[in-house]
Amino acid sequence: MAHYAPAVAHISEDLLRAVAAAAAAATPPAATHPAATPPSGGGEVPGFKELLYLAGLEVVGQICLDARMGFLDGEERMSPRARLILDSVRGYQTASNRAMYGVPMWKWLPEWYRPPPPKKKETVGKKFLSPVWISYIIQRFPGCFRDLMRHKDNLYRLIGEVVDDKLGSEQVFGEENSVLNQLRRAPGVDRRDVKATVVDYITAGVETVGNSVLFAVAMLAAEPGARRRLQRELDKQQQQQQQHGPYLRACAQECFRLYPTACQIARILEEETEVCGGFVLPRHTVVLCHHRIAARQEENFARAEEFLPERWMAPEGEELARRCDRSLVRRIKTSFMKF
Ligand code: HEM
After folding, report:
1. How far is ligand 1, taken at its centre, from the CA of residue 339, in Å?
2. Which helix or strand (DSSP H or E) is residue 254 part of?
């Protein structure tokens, strides 16, 4: 990841500029009382979440395509291609949220997606409307599943063009270990696979990155002590040109613990499985590991509801770890929490 640090630092600077511009453009709310006026005038950044999503998209684009796409440049300065990619990503996110949280018609009627055009003989059947005609009509109405596929197809085409440009050019791009170079060299992976993988990364990396930063900002905003300590570490890092930031890392881990962006991991059992208490789960059961619940239980983390980044730091966190039955701190640090 060190390879991407300078580029991500540039993106962070662009994000800060965009946030400052959005804050400056916002009209401060009329104060009903002089004491109600925030000291910096306004204090609210309209569209903050959207800016974080754009930064997430820019970071993932940089990591996957070794290219700056300019999503933070503002709508009018963005290239037409970046504009189209952004529209498709937004459309894809909206459709996938509707598919996940809306009435899931698409699950029960998946065969109605993109049906074949009705054959002539279907039009003269005895029935008023044959199933083929019904599906043809449904196809003409907006549906989240159809939108999902349309936006994903658009993304595949648009991102595919960027991949083609990159892989087609003679220039040596990025580092040897960049994601695109690794995909390019992977045996048995052809260009279509590279494009599909990059599209997956881009769609997987936007809201996850954006929401994680959003939660972290919200938590640090509510914790002045942690904020000051973090600021001191960052200032020192800058002065001494260091990359190592143990408290920053601990803050990120504590944010993931309290507000995990993805709060559960799901698996479908391949075989009948006995779990604790003698319960037997049949084959094909969906099992959820809900780590947000586990992360807030006192037997796993002492003072579980409190924001205490130092629990992730040795030796500071050891006393806290000793105070609970099965401290998950060490196990998490050495197992699945790699970022
Ligand atoms: C803080 C940010 C992120 C969080 C919290 C997050 C979380 C997750 C989770 C919980 C899974 C499911 C893992 C499983 O079921 O085993 C997952 C899968 C995945 N994520 Fe992320 N992710 C993040 C960022 C990203 C980014 C930036 C990318 C791409 C560059 C990405 C690409 C993927 C892919 C491709 C998968 C599927 C992996 C597989 O099926 O083997 N994620 N992510």
Report:
1. 11
2. helix 246-258
For residue 50, which of 206, 154, 201 has the smallest C-alpha distance?
206
**Domain finish residue from 222, 251, 277:** 222
Note the pLDDT tens digit of each residue in 104-157: 666 665 545 455 555 555 444 455 556 666 565 555 545 777 788 889 999 999
Distance 205 CA to ligand 1 centre (A): 7
> Which atom, in ligand 1's list, is nearest to the CA of 261?
5
Beta carbons of 311 and 301 less than 8 angstroms apart? yes
State if residue 204 touches ligand 1 by the CB under 6 angstroms criterion: yes
Torsion of CA 268, 271, 274, 280, to 10 degrees: 80
Q: Which atom of ligand 1 is nearest to the CA of 56?
A: 27
One-letter amino acid for residue 154 of the chain: N
Each residue's pLDDT tens digit, 247-273? 999 999 999 999 999 999 999 999 999
d(CA 100, CA 102): 6
For residues 248 and 215, membership in a common domain is answered with no
258 Cβ partners below 8 Å, 6+ apart?
A: 215, 219, 295, 296, 307
**Together in a domain, 96 and 177:** yes
Task: Please state, in angstroms and rounded to a whole number, the distance separating the CA atoms of residues 332 and 317.
Answer: 14
Q: Given this model, what pLDDT does residue 27 score?
A: 65
Q: How far is the CA of 204 from the centre of ligand 1 (A)?
A: 6
pTM of the model: 0.80
Q: Are residues 198 and 275 in the same domain?
A: no
Nearest atom within ligand 1 for CA of residue 264: 10
Place of tokens 């949280």: 101
